[in-house]
Prior knowledge:
With 145 residues, the chain is α+β, with helices and mostly antiparallel strands. It is built from three helices and eight strands.
Amino acid sequence: MKHKLSVHPLVLVLAVFGQPFLLLAVESQDQARLEPLGLVCVDGISKNERWDANQTGATEKSIFTVQIDDLAPTQISTASAGVFTNLSTSAKHLVKISVDGRPLTSFRFTFQESQSDHLRLWYNPFYGTWSLSPTDKRHKCAYLQ
Length: 145
């Protein structure tokens, strides 16, 4: 009669290599896989809005470039939106925004501060400001459908 021996991967690592730091490395990989991932939807720029108090030099024809951490930047305009996926919900992230090739603003955020793993980054043309706010699964990222 044959018996199947089931060995937990952590036990196998310890038995074969005998190094406690390998256990920590395996545990952190397991924890990283279990961590929920965050999403930032970047809305396109609204059309036919007033830009009266906007001191940024941006216009309805402007192209904004948004980058989070070291991820590839995405261009945002009245004709395009973007999304950043698979973001760590436990890390602090850096957002950098430029308009027509000129740096505009940057800021840091965490998903924990927003108490949501689904955030919306949007532009207010009237004031020329960007806002990051929590949302939920009902907020449709049009670029994900």
